[in-house]
Amino acid sequence: MSNKNNKIPFSEDNYTHNINRLNERKLDRRGFMKTLAGAAGVFAISSIPWGAVAAKELMGLGEKEYPHKKIADVDELPIGDAVEFKFPGAHDDAILIRLSENKYVAYQNACTHLRCPVYWVKDQGEMICPCHHGKFDVETGSPTAGPPRRPLPEIEIKVKDSAIYAVKVKRYEA
Amino acid sequence: MKRSYIGIVILCFILFLNIIFTQSMVHQFFYENYVNTLIFMGLNLLLFPTAVIAYKKTIDVLE
């Protein structure tokens, strides 16, 4: 800014010296500090949704319960057998397996690899996806062999008045 | 008249903390430690007024 004044025309390496640009493309110390403070504001605001969802989870609003749905009567399902049903929606295939007198497990049986239906193979004691021979542990739903890497979503089961009801889908646990 | 650059140093450090807290917050969220997520969100929120105060206090400081 030193000796530009009083020299007409002052030397400047562009042809637009008659346009007053007000230093609009210059980032000085003050502007840089303003940018940094603004960045802190952006960080603060953008972290609010994460906290909001976390608070929602903490208050238990994420635990969604579907209307209970009757799957089968206890008498109809011998030990070691499986029955397929739909839960929670009309297109969400699921499978219920009776492991012992009082032990039932149920999973959404779309394979976590490419969503082929997973079947209960009684002789081998495993849940098998025929598409790519993915295998799942029947007790936990976790994958034991083949391409799938994630467990099958478990469905909570309730037995009431000698009938089996699906209560809710357990949260996917990483 | 030469301005001090202490404000820039402070604000850069605040930005650094912002980045750390944000990343920790996201990680804690996916690890389902929701209390920690809330803590890091609170820290991130606190950094904004801190940054504004740091800006106002240091913008006219001379060397």
From TrEMBL, chain A:
InterPro entries to which the protein is assigned, alphabetical: Rieske_2Fe-2S, Rieske_2Fe-2S_sf, Rieske_Fe-S_prot, TAT_signal, TAT_signal_bac_arc
Chain segments annotated as transmembrane: 31-52
Keyword Protein biosynthesis: no
PROSITE patterns named among the record's database cross-references: RIESKE (PS51296), TAT (PS51318)
GO MF annotation: an example: 2 iron, 2 sulfur cluster binding
Keywords, sorted A to Z: 2Fe-2S, Disulfide bond, Iron, Iron-sulfur, Membrane, Metal-binding, Transmembrane, Transmembrane helix
Name the UniProt record assigns to this protein: 2Fe-2S ferredoxin
Species in which this protein is naturally found: Cytobacillus horneckiae
From TrEMBL, chain B:
Key word Membrane present: yes
Membrane-crossing segments per the record: 38-55
Keywords: Membrane, Transmembrane, Transmembrane helix
Superkingdom of this protein's organism: Bacteria
Protein name, as recorded: Uncharacterized protein
Source organism: Cytobacillus horneckiae
